[in-house]
Design brief:
Elements lengths: L11 H45 L6 H13 L1 H14 L7 H31 L7 H68 L2 H16 L3 H18 L8 E2 H19 L3 E7 L7 E2 L5 H12 L6 E10 L2 E8 L7 H7 L2 H14 L5 E6 L5 E8 L14
Parallel strand pairs: 2-4
Antiparallel strand pairs: 1-3, 4-5, 5-7, 6-7
Helix pairs in contact: 1-2, 1-3, 3-4, 3-5, 4-5, 5-11, 6-7, 6-8, 7-8
Length: about 400
């Protein structure tokens, strides 16, 4: 089934790229602002050092003079800061193409440094009040001998500081992402353990085991040995799967439905003609991934509070289909529904609460939901919505991630 997009909405990939581009733009201007403050701050710091040293040496200089001497040289670097940032971001030494980066920084970095030296040499007679060089060659000697080396070192230091910041930011982001991932995995394992315990509690329920074993005994008395062995195998497989500690956070819907069929095969013996199960699953939905044991609490709820309380035969309808970008799972029964308030409160139990929490942990509150409502025509309808995906381990936008 093809995915459905709302008119005017961006596809998920384009929206992600646009979001990343916006973050990149904001990060660039933020870095540029920090660079401007840093250059100004260094200029003021050097002026402070110059002022202090002049006092210590016995040749005191006034504050306006030291500011005029030191600050303009650094503030002038703000003009070149965007070019320095672009080169630092685009040409790095932590990639296989580092020789190219070295050539670019040597060439363009030298041009930027020379441009700054030249511009400051042109400004210095007006800023510092010194005489203009008599000849262009004399001016060039001032640029090359007095300013260029310092400018080259300043360029290298600026690029190095930016790379250090980016490395720290990437390291911190990776550490935070790993910590969030580990915390989410721990929460998912806890929810899965809760689901296993709940399922095991239901399967070890005396009535459930009594009916299952009594059915086996009945088959043996009828000399239907194959049927008895099959029933014991189904019960053993159900318990084995529930007790599996290595259960992954997601399984295919086909695997989930196979486990649910084992459970219902045993319950069908218990209910006999009072229960009829109808399956309606789209062919393309079988390969979708879902949390394990996600449907069993809904089915148990329907059997206990819906079918079991009927005096006559009841219908249990299990369906799965893709709806747009989501997978819809529905369990519907023909019981008494949710109209009485005590019944509604009773059916909204721990199983559904745990199911809702597991979905939110794995997919996020906005991307998944579980609700229990009255079904049209009578009975109750439990519905789960989760992202439709065909690969295990897909990253989801969990809440708070």
């Amino acid at each position: 089934m093809s995915s459905v997009e709302a008119p005017g909405d961006l596809p998920m990939e384009d929206a992600f790229d646009a979001d990343e581009a916006l973050k990149e733009k904001v990060s660039f201007w933020k870095a540029l602002g920090v660079a401007a403050l840093a250059y100004t701050g260094v200029g003021i710091l050097e002026a402070t050092v110059d002022f202090t040293l002049s006092r210590v040496s016995g040749s005191p200089r006034d504050i306006p003079t030291v500011l005029r001497t030191q600050v303009p040289w650094w503030v002038l670097w703000i003009i070149f800061a965007p070019a320095v940032l672009v080169l630092a971001r685009r040409y790095r030494f932590d990639s296989p193409r580092w020789p190219r980066s070295a050539v670019v920084h040597a060439g363009l970095g030298g041009i930027i440094s020379l441009s700054h030296s030249t511009l400051y040499a042109i400004m210095s007679p007006y800023v510092l009040g010194i005489a203009v060089a008599a000849t262009p060659w004399a001016q060039a000697r001032i640029v090359l001998g007095r300013y260029l080396f310092t400018d080259l070192m300043t360029y290298i230091a600026a690029v190095g500081v930016y790379w250090s910041y980016e490395y720290f930011r990437h390291f911190r982001s990776s550490a935070l992402a790993a910590a969030r991932s580990e915390a989410q995995a721990a929460r998912l394992q806890l929810r899965l353990a809760d689901a296993r315990i709940h399922a095991l509690r239901m399967e070890l329920n005396p009535h459930f085991l009594f009916n299952a074993l009594n059915s086996v005994a009945g088959l043996v008395r009828k000399r239907e040995h194959d049927g008895a062995i099959d029933m014991l195998a189904r019960l053993g497989e159900l318990l084995r799967t529930t007790l599996n500690r290595d259960m992954p956070p997601e399984v295919t819907l086909a695997e989930e439905l196979a486990l649910l069929r084992r459970f219902l095969d045993i319950e069908l013996v218990r209910f006999g003609d009072r229960l009829r199960v109808v399956w309606e699953v789209e062919a393309g939905a079988y390969d979708a991934f879902v949390p394990p044991l996600i449907l069993q609490p809904l089915v148990e709820n329907a059997l206990r509070h819906g079918i079991a309380k009927r005096s006559g035969a009841g219908l249990l309808h299990v369906s799965a289909r893709q709806v747009g970008l989501q997978l819809e799972l529905v369990v519907r029964d023909t019981g008494e529904g949710l109209a009485p308030r005590p019944v509604r409160a009773e059916r909204q139990g721990i199983g559904l609460s745990n199911t809702r929490s597991r979905l939110e942990e794995l997919y996020g509150a906005e991307a998944s939901s579980v609700d229990l409502t009255d079904a049209p025509g009578g009975g109750a309808r439990a519905r789960i919505l989760l992202p439709f995906h065909l690969s295990r381990g897909r990253e989801h936008a969990a809440a708070g991630a």
